[in-house]
Amino acid sequence: MTTEVKTTEEWHFKINPWITMIPIMLSIFMFALDETISNVALPYMAGTFSISHNESTWIITSYLVASGIIIPAVDFFSKLIGRKQYFMLSIVIFTLASILCGISNSMAMMLFSRALQGIGGGGIMPIAQAMIFEIFPKEKLPTAMAIFGLGVVMAPIMGPALGGWITENWSWPFIYFINIPFGIIALHLTHRFVEEPPYSKKQKNVTMDVSGFAFLALWLLTLQVVLDKGNDADWFNAPWICKLFTVSVICCIAFFYVQFKKGKTKTALIDLSILKNHNFLIGTMGQIILMGVMMASASILPSMLQSLLGYTAFLSGLSMVPRGSGCFLASILCGILVTKIGIKPVTVIGLVILAIGGLLFGEINTSISLSSIALPNFTFGLGMVMAMVPLANISCSTLPNEAQTNAAGLQNLLKNTGAAIGTSIATTMISRFSQAHQMMMIKSLTDTNEIYLNKLNSIASAFMTQVDPFTATYMGQAQLYNSLRQQATLWGYVETFRYFAVAAVFIIPFVYFLYEGKKKNPKTAEVKVEADL
């Protein structure tokens, strides 16, 4: 920086922060919405591109991987061309990529377009989070972060419902075309209402950490392939999974080694010394778990409703609407309760409510209606926002403004990774739990079980009006076995939801180790935050 640049203390934002929030939240909502809006449309896309359902999941994966790779480089690009300019460039790339997604006529073009969309979207979230921390005074920050959390959490929840409605009433390309007008509006409002502090402007002599970026890309790419295909390949029983996972671990270790070695130098992709901050470390760990729970639950619930209960894409997406209502109520409660009882009590309350939501999901069965999903979903959304928003607030509350962009980049990288791992773990748990329950229940389908024989004879008798006794008995056995598989699969989902409750309770003790204090005075912004706060 030049000597004319003002210090953090001398700089004051001139535009009302609530006006600045409009383009910021619009951009955040677009990015977060596209994380899940494709979920319920995958069968339609698979048909368009003549691919299997498993192959169609790469449409989601390519987006998450690309955004995860670009997030740590946000601080570098912000310094290279200026943070506001990079934020606007990210919106442009995201919007143009959305057009390409909508006009894609092959799987290769779709994967390229989604990866490009992820590259654009990856720059939006960390910059937006950093700007919100800067523009709001401390007394208004809890309310602002509640609104931020509402966008981050509610958009992925509303994605399946909106995507299902658009897909069934129009066609799947329109789930991407809807980004175009909002992208144009967000770009225009950002140009007009987002200010750029001196410390976020273009800097000279900024160099790229090529080795760090290469290790990061290889780490995330190989990890995502392992997570996506591991369950289908029986995990480490497959040699190629073992080899790919080894490459992923080596690249991960190499990435963190290079970053720690370079430290705070300008050549480092990420300043990992920020992990020495007590609040940031614990708060980020909690958010990683919560992000895994949120994305995993948003992924498996519509899948369960479609595969077990025969719901349409729209109805399965509609099931997530009560969760959005819970998120909305939680955003209001967070703004009120944080100022009255403090951040840590609100976080604990949110985690307890989230655990209750997981337990309520553990009581579902195959006879439930769509309305029966409403209460567990509402409770889940309420607890998720009440836990995540205060946790995000307190994790960065002891950091100086100059460190916010770097902190947001690292935090979002780890949260994205947590979301991918959480979704993969949930999918594996459903598969393994279903197999275990099937093995336990299959023991009841024997000729020595009187209840089974009575049920089989009853079903076979109904079939005997159309086929011979031997075929009728065989058809009855097949029907009972299909019913058993359905119940076993249901139990796989039930136990997975209960483990979501366990994950929420696991975070609670760590909340009490967080420091709920005042943010550092701007005069001391250059002073390193002590690790024992």
Please give a structural write-up.
By secondary structure, this protein is mainly alpha-helical. The protein folds into two domains: 17-208 and 269-436 and 486-524, MFS general substrate transporter like domains (Growth Hormone, Chain: A, Up-down Bundle), CATH 1.20.1250; 209-268. The chain has 21 helices and no strands. It has helices spanning 17-33, 42-49, 53-56, 58-70, 74-81, 83-103, 107-122, 124-135, 141-169, 174-177, 179-193, 210-229, 239-262, 278-309, 313-318, 321-341, 343-361, 374-395, 404-441, 450-463, 469-511. Helix 4 (58-70) packs parallel to helix 7, helix 9 packs parallel to helix 14 (278-309) and helix 19 packs antiparallel against helix 21. The longest helix is centred in the C-terminal third of the chain and has 43 residues, at 469-511. It is globular. Mean pLDDT is 83; it is low at 1-9 and 519-533.
Radius of gyration: 25 Å
- Share of helix, binned: over 70%
Number of strands: 0
Q: Report the span from N to C terminus.
A: 30 Å
The whole-number mean of residue pLDDT values reads: 83
Helices and strands, in order, run as: HHHHHHHHHHHHHHHHHHHHH
The low-confidence parts are 1-9, 519-533
The percent range for strand residues is: under 5%
CATH structural architecture of the largest domain: Up-down Bundle
How many domains?
2
Please describe the biggest sheet, giving its number of strands, its sense, and whether it closes into a barrel: none
Instruction: Give me the secondary-structure category.
Output: mainly alpha
CATH class of the largest domain: Mainly Alpha
What's the number of helices? 21
What is the name of the CATH superfamily of the largest domain? MFS general substrate transporter like domains
CATH topology label of the largest domain: Growth Hormone, Chain: A
